[in-house]
Fold AsnC family transcriptional regulator.
Amino acid sequence: MLDDLDKKLLDILIRDSRTSLKELAQQVGLSSPSVSERLRRLEDRGVIRAFTVEIDPQALGYTLQAIVRIRPLPGKLHIVQKLIEEIPEFGECDKVTGDDCFVARLFVRSIGDLDKLLDRIADKAETSTAIIKAQPIRRRPPPLDMPNI
Amino acid sequence: MLDDLDKKLLDILIRDSRTSLKELAQQVGLSSPSVSERLRRLEDRGVIRAFTVEIDPQALGYTLQAIVRIRPLPGKLHIVQKLIEEIPEFGECDKVTGDDCFVARLFVRSIGDLDKLLDRIADKAETSTAIIKAQPIRRRPPPLDMPNI
DNA sequence: AGCTTTTTGTCCAGGTCGTCCAGCATTTTA
DNA sequence: TAAAATGCTGGACGACCTGGACAAAAAGCT
């Protein structure tokens, strides 16, 4: 499992993944080779899936986001899933229990694009679309230490 | 807007945000001070929101994820939103058009925890919960270059 | 077009940072 | 209790980053 030092490192990296080893080292009270080794192990174990960058979709022209619930028609599940995966505007897709088989996030530049993209699966699935008006919580990792539930 | 070099830099950083300036520089054919300057500008402009790290929720003990649709009772919208924001297990929350006011992602350690967390808002909102069975597409940024729609 | 201003780039030098390695302490296994 | 394995440190060396002076290109103005 993860010890306190690992959690402290993750906590710093969540806020800035470009923090130098030296900086990390002094913040957790280790030498930089130790920190380097710990990061390597966290990556090897799959705890750290990737060091990445969060980009503002607006800066890329994606002014609209939608949550799309997708219910494939009988026998079309696999075709629909493949279709979704191949459309790069889908920024996230979960397969869930219940009537709606998939819940996905769609980035688009305009309502027109939204319509065109949904048309591609319209003959293979029923969809319900909700436009995102605001984001009270933007993507964030689960708590590092056990919260009181 | 973003030129080709910016996009190339972002593309590399999406895959590994700890890539050194030197490495970035030779991949895009600039000097490292130039790359450093470009990154600074991208951050200033808000194109880059954060350099961060993607963590496997399982490694933190969160073995279960759910998509929760939340419909606050009349007059309770603001209290509900505040409540959601204060619960750290919500890893994402969007305010959307339609009957469901919020669509949120919940990280939990067990079905028991899921029940306890939803109980906290049960008297202020109606909720429908779908357990995530698989993730065909994990969170990814929108395409950097215009796709043909 | 010709000039000025602004933006974006390079090069270089000094200082910082990361990695490798040997050695030590602590814990685990036999 | 000894042996092995793990995880740490410090220092040396090489790689990397930063800041400043200057050059080139792009944009704006007359």
Chain A touches chain B through 69 residues (CB under 8 Å). Residues 20-22, 32-33, 36 of chain A lie near DNA strand C (CB under 10 Å from a C1').
